[in-house]
């Protein structure tokens, strides 16, 4: 039996920044070497970032990925790190002849083994996900080779992300061929309550493969997706050995004991993958001699975050990375005194610091006294930058030129506010944060080119009931890495008062919508679970409410298509997950 010290680089790459990601690879490899690691494993497509979407269809991009991989292998050797094996994800190509239906250039979601200044082995994801937010049949062709390399006498296999989630394929082949360790680079996006699924999956696959398993996951925000890390190591029996934290970069260093030694011959060996395909195992030897016994370090097992902590942390990380990776210096939003803008401002202050958050108080003739005072109290507590821009005169000037009434007149106020925010954004380079929640977005309870105007929507996938829950949670808790130091940053009155858009006298949200606790349960079944009207009624929802809410959701599709991107935190968000036609005469019926 043998030992190995592995380092899982739970890292935050930037899509398209190949040179910057390569610099990070070298720096993290040096840290791993300093901590005595014998193997370093980076995440899926680390060198290119993930997901790269249609960039992968450009020959120039794939060429750059392959070139960067080879350059960084040589650079590791030049900097004295060449003898430390590194597994890293990148984009490669299969070299297949073009054909209709095959992605241009036949790209591969690939991983490589770097050692001695060279790329000594390459593999690619075998199972391509094509559900939820994934479109990988559009972008990649399937890999059919599985490297197993011997390191200090232990055979180490490499699989990629989805290969762990599907039956058959690389895990089945590892079980047949035999290995002491299976390493799996991942870019698995966050959705709430997913991490227990991951641990159960790793446990099951380790037992199936008959070896220890190291699952290393990306961390960071990328447009609508948030990656939460939560890297995991289990032993051959599926027992948890080590676990990294959530929503933070971390070099997880783990000593594995009792790994089997191998004397299998090098070469190429085909195996039935038990999914209708054949996978060729490429066996190679880096080092035969086992390590001399050494004292193992204690394996860290990070404490899990509770539901509200992980959702809030996901939103903070999403905002922080969207701002930083897109080169913004500051953000701006309208602060109404209501709960949605209060939570959005708090998330922003935790993400980038209150000194970089700008809020504009834009009272109208219908704004209540408490709206302005609640907004001013939040500014006082958090120390964000604020200004007041009353809109009454702006709206009056518009009304002198064109006559509007009813809903059109109400929406004019929202559009005046949107114009102010976009103007200040243009003037000062701020990123405009939109403050609408998922319940409003679902039912179309927003104004196109008004409160929906902006560049990023932090709570776009947060139902209204959870907006309140997260606000109460944040008033009682903080987490390492949050940049806002204020205690109870959200005024209590913003949380407890009845919600209102305040676009007409005595307006309440319940004038147009059912109570949110009722609405959100129905929206969860209709949007998240794709229930039809009959199923919704059978699930206990009121038939009249089902008809009303379905119509609100269906006719608002055109609005959602024009809404800014925002972080996905539920199993089905409006955006990459849920795709419905705008021009659509299908209507659910309750009869």
What would you note in describing this structure?
The N and C termini lie far apart (68 Å). The protein is built from 18 helices and 20 strands. The strands form 4 sheets. Strands 13-12-9-8-7-6-16-15 form an 8-stranded mixed sheet. The chain has a 6-stranded mixed sheet with strand order 5-4-3-2-1-14. A 4-stranded parallel sheet has the order 19-18-17-20, sandwiched between helices. Helix 1 (18-34) packs parallel to helix 2 (59-78), helix 5 runs parallel beside helix 6 (195-209) and helix 7 crosses helix 13 (464-476). It is an alpha/beta fold and 591 residues long. A hairpin with a 2-residue loop joins strand 6 and strand 7 (154-158). The longest helix is centred in the last third of the chain and has 23 residues, at 406-428. It has helices spanning 18-34, 59-78, 136-139, 162-165, 170-177, 195-209, 307-325, 339-352, 369-382, 392-401, 406-428, 438-443, 464-476, 492-496, 516-528, 533-538, 543-555, 557-561; strands at residues 2-10, 39-41, 86-93, 107-115, 118-124, 145-151, 154-158, 181-186, 212-217, 219-222, 225-228, 232-234, 240-243, 250-259, 267-272, 278-285, 331-334, 357-361, 385-388, 431-432.
């Amino acid at each position: 039996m043998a030992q190995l010290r592995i380092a899982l680089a739970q890292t935050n790459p930037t899509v398209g920044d190949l040179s910057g990601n390569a610099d990070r690879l070298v720096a993290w490899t040096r840290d791993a070497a300093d901590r005595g690691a014998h193997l370093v494993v980076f995440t899926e497509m680390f060198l290119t970032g993930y997901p790269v979407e249609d960039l992968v269809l450009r020959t120039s991009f794939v060429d750059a990925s392959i070139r960067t991989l080879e350059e960084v292998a040589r650079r590791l050797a030049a900097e004295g790190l060449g003898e430390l094996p590194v597994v890293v994800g990148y984009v490669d190509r299969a070299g297949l002849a073009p054909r209709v239906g095959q992605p241009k250039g036949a790209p591969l979601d690939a991983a490589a083994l770097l050692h001695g200044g060279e790329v000594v082995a390459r593999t690619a994801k075998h199972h391509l996900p094509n559900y939820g937010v994934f479109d990988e049949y559009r972008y990649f062709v399937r890999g059919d080779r599985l490297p197993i390399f011997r390191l200090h006498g232990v055979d180490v296999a490499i699989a990629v992300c989805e290969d762990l989630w599907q039956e058959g394929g690389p895990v089945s082949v590892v079980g047949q061929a035999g290995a002491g360790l299976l390493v799996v680079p991942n870019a698995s996006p966050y959705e709430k309550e997913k991490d227990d699924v991951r641990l159960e999956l790793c446990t099951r696959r380790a037992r199936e493969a008959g070896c220890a398993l190291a699952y290393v996951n990306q961390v960071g925000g990328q447009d609508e997706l948030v990656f939460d890390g939560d890297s995991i190591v289990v032993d051959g029996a599926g027992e948890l050995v080590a676990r990294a934290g959530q929503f933070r970069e971390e070099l997880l260093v783990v000593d594995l004991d009792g790994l089997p030694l191998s004397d299998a011959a090098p070469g190429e060996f085909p195996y039935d993958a038990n999914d209708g395909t054949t996978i060729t195992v490429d066996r190679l030897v880096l080092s035969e001699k086992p390590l001399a016994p050494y004292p193992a370090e204690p394996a860290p097992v990070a404490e899990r975050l509770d539901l509200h902590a992980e959702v809030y942390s996901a939103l903070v990380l999403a905002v922080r990375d969207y701002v930083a990776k897109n080169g913004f210096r500051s953000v701006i939003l309208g602060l109404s005194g209501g709960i949605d803008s209060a939570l959005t401002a708090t998330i922003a202050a935790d993400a980038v610091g209150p000194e970089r958050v700008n809020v504009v108080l834009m009272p109208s003739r219908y704004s209540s006294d408490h709206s302005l005072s609640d907004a001013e109290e939040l500014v006082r507590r958090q120390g964000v930058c604020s200004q007041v821009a009353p809109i009454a005169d702006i709206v009056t000037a518009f009304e002198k030129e064109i006559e509007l009434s009813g809903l059109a007149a109400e929406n004019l106020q929202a559009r005046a506010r949107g114009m102010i925010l976009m103007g200040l954004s243009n003037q000062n380079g701020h990123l405009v944060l939109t403050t609408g929640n998922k319940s409003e977005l679902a039912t179309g309870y927003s104004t196109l080119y008004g409160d929906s105007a902006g560049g990023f929507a932090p709570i776009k996938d947060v139902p209204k009931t959870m907006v309140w829950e997260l606000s109460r949670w944040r008033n009682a808790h903080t987490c390492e890495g949050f940049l806002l130091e204020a205690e109870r940053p959200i005024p209590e009155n913003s949380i407890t008062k009845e919600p209102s858009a305040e676009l007409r006298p005595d307006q309440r949200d319940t004038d147009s919508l059912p109570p949110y606790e009722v609405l959100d349960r129905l929206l969860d079944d209709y949007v998240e679970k794709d229930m039809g009207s009959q199923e919704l009624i059978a699930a206990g929802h009121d038939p009249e409410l089902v008809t009303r809410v379905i119509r609100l959701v269906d006719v608002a599709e055109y609005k959602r298509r024009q809404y800014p991107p925002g972080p996905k935190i539920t199993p089905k968000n409006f955006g990459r997950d849920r795709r419905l036609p705008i021009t659509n005469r299908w209507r659910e019926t309750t009869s």
